[in-house]
Protein 1
Amino acid sequence: ALNLAMTSHALRVIAVAYKNLSTFNEGLQKGVLERDLTFVGLIGMIDPPREEVKEAVKICRQAGIKPVMITGDHILTAKTIAKELGILTSQTEAITGEELSRMSAERLNDTISRFSVFARVSPEHKVRIVKAYQNKGEVVAMTGDGVNDAPALKAADIGCAMGITGTDVTKNAADMILTDDNFATIISAVKEGRGIYNNIKKDVHFLLSSNIGEVVTIFTASIINAFGYKSLGVPLMPVHLLWVNLVTDTLPAFALGMEPADKDIMKEKPRPKDESFFAHGLGWTIVWQGIMVGALTLIAYIYGNNINHEIGMTMAFLTLSSSQLFHAFNIKSTKSIFHKTIFNNKYLWGALIIGLILQFMVVYIPGLNDLFSLVPLETNTLSVSIGLALCPIVIVEFVKFVKNLFKKD
């Protein structure tokens, strides 16, 4: 009863007993030594979890990550600690290694999601647990520090070894080493990883939609020139496209790569490991936004071309390059551009300011504009170009509003 009371308070219990012997030799059998002992008492030890672990477990659950405890401790000790940390809930159970050994592989695969605490386990049990979760299609991260953890770390999708207490065998078997031996560091790594993945998607989104806009502009003008009743001429020269790709594509792309992770990113559910990069309509979004940029550029060109070809080409160049700079703000978040996070990326604002300065330099500085076959625009044509360049913000804002409206419903 005392043992159960101590283990239920998260204590690791050791019983102490002694036996008086007149003589001792190494030939004595273990059974003889451990018989007729005088009981002294119980010693309780506790290895308290770090303060930050409880919060880390809470964030795990918000992020759709299931934390699981695998330990060699007594099941009552493990359950008490797991309940304190929020690992063991009313929806989950605890199981011992002995019970696990009696389970068939099929039954374990079917019931693995019921358990969040595994006590008194051996190295073979750890590997079975990892494999069972993987058979359910889960991505498994496993932590460990001892030699007996190495097989499970190797079997897991992501093996995390302890950098301070971990053995060399464990570190060699792991994919990642925690230099501070802190579980909360894994959560920070997950947040950082999600942020990096989102930024890569933003960069691809921006670059592809921008380049589709350029392709649409040139291709549509070529089709009209080939089959239309009136020739439009060439809206953009190769040097213009080179400038756009080197300046107005590159600066925002670098800035989007520096976008801070959304504060709610750990409230999102994990993406399936076989999910397409262009899932959730990203491919279609890239296409229609590219067509939008190309259409606005053509409108600017046709408007200016009715005055003269050089003005039309200048308006097309300024509209295309400026619209891409503004469009980068649409891509920085799925939320409205007027959300409070609009000022959280100084690099994006720097890219916008530098990009616009360079655009106006190319258009208005004598000699430099001659190299690009451009001419200074008057107030009315400049206003049309800037107005069309700002249209992507209005259009995308409307689409975001409609999407969020349906999400709420």
Protein 2
Amino acid sequence: MDQLEIKLRCSKFVFGKVLPTLLVGVFFSGCGSSKAETLNPPSSSAINSSHSTTSTTTSRSTIVSPPSTHGSIVKEPIVGLIDMGVQTPYSENLPFPPINLSPLNSYAGSFAGVVINESWSQLEPSNGVYDWAPLDQSLANVQIWNSDHPNSPLAVKLRIFAGHGAPSWVVSESGPTVAIEVHGVVEGVGQWWTTPFRDAWSTFQHALAARYDSNPLIREVSVSSCTSSTGEPFVISGAIVSRRNLAAAGWTIALQEQCLSQALADYSGWHQTLLTFAFNPLPTQQGPDQAFTNQIMLQCVDSYKSGGPKCAVGNNDVSANASLSASGPTYSEITTLTANPSNDTQVYFQTTPLLTCSTIYTALKYHASSVEVWSPNGRYRGFSAFSPSTLSLWNKALAGGSSLGC
């Protein structure tokens, strides 16, 4: 496909339909550009009123949008199966390439969405210098796929890796990297709990929201504040070497709790796009602290009612035996939240690499509207272990279009 055809298709189609020129400009404002842009950190007034930016001295207190009545309608959540995308570049400290949707060509109609993964370092290589080209290219690839499959378009969930994916300039400002062990591999991560790191991340998230919140293709954004080596804010390496190194760098449970308590404020620029927040019992020296996790889960559920972003609760380790796992108390709290009619509780899950029908059945039991499933990756067959017809059945069950028996 030549560059002219890509540009034409990128600018004309959204979910297979021709759009007015004005909406096209909003949808892919950077579709044909590969240049980095330099922006001053946004002020709260600029974020609330438009997508423009203004030169100002920023801190967490000035970039957070205050609670207010909502002037925008939140886009519909993704309902069905979501391809969580390839994770290999992240684990190998490589930039994410533009999303490749060819593995889904034989699965049209089996998925409702796809995750676009990016590292923070890819999108803000220098302080205040944003390179949106990697994300724009991935969005363009999804849109081309949608124009080729107008009867089964894909929505996008955006996941930006923060701690392990922090730019070098942030690491320099917040302190040296901390070596922690993840699945037997020692990795260096930025000091995500420090004020310089948190300020820089919040500023970045507001710039990201200013550019993409109105994009109709991006329906969900994953909360990555306070994360270390995964996209799960409540997951912290329990290895002895990790805890020793974190303590030496100044990390404490109290600082982690403070960071988690302000995570939604980092995303307060997302007025139209649903947030998905992965929860687990917070690990402490005294054992898992589900009570604190429950506080933040309720904060997520109540966020929209209090003028903040719309937020869905979830867990990134759903399995057939989820209630018996270490995250069992989190699933119990999800049951409590969804049972309360005064709550508008949105639920999502991500599976383990081992996907089964019983996994999807469990997700339905806990009222999930979407489930992220693993892509084929190395020794993991992921969703390719199942036929398109099987995945389509699961996809329809999540959408409420059919029952599921396993």
Protein 3
Amino acid sequence: MHLRKISALTLVALAAGVSLTACGSGSSTKAGSAAGDSDSSASAPASSADDSGGADDSANGSGSGSGSGTANASTLSSHSGTASGSGAASGAGAASGSASGGTCRTANLAFSTSGAMAEGELLVNLRNTGPSACTLHGFPGVDLKGRDGTVSAARSKVAAPSVSLAPGQETRFTLHYPPNHSGGSGVTFTTLIVTPPNETHPHTLAQAINIPVTDGSAPGPGITVDPVGTGK
């Protein structure tokens, strides 16, 4: 009888222990769940903080990028200004160089003819029509052209001076040819082709020159030209 009471008490105690264990397990599970919820709710602000931090970093990055762009733009502007300045200086140097006196060009000369002091002489006048002074030195090329052909004037033995022409100034040279006193028709040239010294572009003048023809020889001997600057 006594043994049965003890067994019954033991069973009651065991049942109570099992019940308490079950209750403790449930509360720990709930506590763990609550703790997990608390952890997840705490981690959410940290994530927002990271996002805001990333936004700050992005803002900082764009700021530095903008600054760099500004620096590059100012640098390019500075280089551009320097380049254009040097170009302007180069242009000014070229302009001053062309303004100094050089060889008189055919395009900047006006040509005319006039009678000389003696028979058988023709003055050819050259006037500077350019914007700046120019120089002439040497013999011109002179060709006489007519229906029967073309004859080139030979150079005389006169020394060639250097001639400087300011804008509007004029100089001249003399063409010598034998006048026709033969009594015959002779040969008539109708065109004078003049090339200034140190030039390759000729200028054509209408000019009638009649020379004799003797012994059936071709016209030409006795036609000579003086250097520029020696005409009277």
Protein 4
Amino acid sequence: MTQPLVSICIPVYNGEKYLKQCLDSCINQTYDNYEIIICDDGSTDTSVQLIEEYAISNKKIRLSKNEKNLGLVENWNACIKQARGEWIKFVFQDDYIAENCLQKFVEQIEPSVNLIVSARNFILPENPSSDYINYYTNRVRTLENTGAYSSTFFTPQSISRIAAENISMNFIGEPSLTFFRGRVVDELGSFNPLFKQICDLEFVLRIASKYGLKYIPEKICAFRIHTDSTTSTNVENKYFDLHYIEPLLFSWVLFYSKEYNTFRSCLNVFLKFKLKMYFKLKCYVANKVNREENKNHLVFNPSQTQFKEIHNSKDGNLLVRMIALVKK
């Protein structure tokens, strides 16, 4: 079996609480041909000191400190730019991986495979409520509960269909669960800073809707859920953007962006119609709330010519208005 170089990418910002566990899990891998790329985005806690201590004794670690704070998504992209590996494995500062994680991923490599994803292993906070447990155990959409799980390879057609049936729902998995070829970034682009919350879904869907994905039904990557996470912070502080603007822009990307030509070609007439109506509905609702709450969001500014379709659809048509009334 070949031993390709794997780049473990760890974007860091004030991650001292769980960073040691994250680094230990990456260092103690049964697979040996890897590097650890860490981009710190201006941490003010002890994260950098901790990383520097690890780097002294482990030459696989390369720390890069951003000259200015880039923000979440651009720091992810900074990690990718530093990576030299044929394959890239993200591990977030709050997360950790099993000691055989890289080995398991590498064993699944085939010439036609560009994206590999493992099963989710949610690490919940202490003493979670029954509703909390039920949501992450039973209600979160996953590759296994989409109704398309019959083998460990999902075709572009099946991925595209699931995405159109579950618009804006991350059924594939967070970056800490993914393993992808570095060259697909040159072809399809990196994480899109247009998105703050579903940036991970948009990125992996861009790959999977063109090449499909291989699935490992083992929980070899742990994704931590806690109140200090970026997800929790976004939900609390950016309600309008996350609930109205992001779904709108995501549906725009799916319906109009050239990066999703293959995705659209995989959809039947009904799913294309559904996606179009979802886009029109989101235009109508987001614009309505924008006016009522005086958000003055730039996406509705006519000078934003990138989104001319949004300007043309933001008032909705009769059908969209009827759907909006029903949903009240």
